[in-house]
Amino acid sequence: MRSVIAATLAVVAGLVAANMLGVASAEAPTTTTAPVRSLSVEGVANVPIAQSANLATATAVYRQAMAEAMADGQSKAEFLAGKAAVTLGSVQRIVEAGGYIGCTNDEETNYAEYEGEQPDFGSPPSSISVLPSAESESAPRVGAVRKPTLKHPKKRVSAKKASAAKCKLTASVALVYAIS
C-alpha cells in the first residue's frame, strides 16, 4: 500500500512540475518580426498580334507582352516609391494576371473576330483585376477574350476589310515589392 501511495505522490509531483514549466514557457517573452512593408502594382502591356496567329506565335507574343508588363510594373513601382519617399526593394511576389486578345476593323469602330489560336493566359487569382471595375458589363474578365463594346451596330464586313483587322494582345502582371 505504501508503494502505491508513494507512486501516486510521485506522479502528482511530476504533473505539478510539468504544469509549472509549461506556464513559465508560455509567459516567456516571444520575439516577433515586424511586418514587411510592401508596394503592390500591376503592369499592363499591349502588343500587336496577327488576326490568325498560330499557337507558337501567340505564345511568343504573350511572353513579349508579359515582359513589357513587368517593365511597366517596375516603372509604376519606382514612381510610387519616389512619391512616397521610400526605397524600393526587391520583388517579393510575381503573379501572372492573365490577358486577352481584341481585334477591330480598319475604322477601329467595329469588333472583328480573332481567328488564331489562344496562348495559355493562365488562371489569375480572383483578387487581381486587370480593369478598374470588374462589375462593369463591358469589362472583360481576366484571362478571357475581350470583345469591345460596339460604338455602332455591327455591320457586315467584306472579306477584304476582315483581313485588314488590327489585333492586340493585352497582358497583365501583378508585382509586390519590398519597401523601406
Give me some keywords for this one.
single chain, four-stranded antiparallel sheet, 180 residues, alpha+beta, Translation Initiation Factor IF3, 33% helix, elongated
Provide the CATH superfamily.
Answer: Protein of unknown function (DUF541), domain 1
Query: Strand content of the residues, in percent?
Result: 25-35%
Number of helical stretches of at least 4 residues: 3
CATH class: Alpha Beta
Query: What is the H/E string?
Result: HEHEEHE
Share of helix among residues?
A: 25-40%
How many β strands by DSSP? 4
Q: What is the domain total for the residues?
A: 1
C-alpha end-to-end distance:
70 Å
Overall mean pLDDT score?
76
Helix-and-strand structural type: alpha+beta
CATH fold group: Translation Initiation Factor IF3
User: How much is the radius of gyration in Å?
Assistant: 29 Å
Largest sheet at a glance? 4 strands, antiparallel
Strand order of the largest sheet: 1-4-2-3
Characterization of this structure:
It is built from three helices and four strands. By secondary structure, the chain is an alpha+beta fold. It has one domain: Translation Initiation Factor IF3 (2-Layer Sandwich), CATH 3.30.110. It has a four-stranded antiparallel β-sheet. Strand 2 (88-104) and strand 3 form a beta hairpin. The longest helix is centred in the middle third of the chain and has 29 residues, at 55-83. The protein is elongated. The model is unreliable at 128-162 (pLDDT under 50).
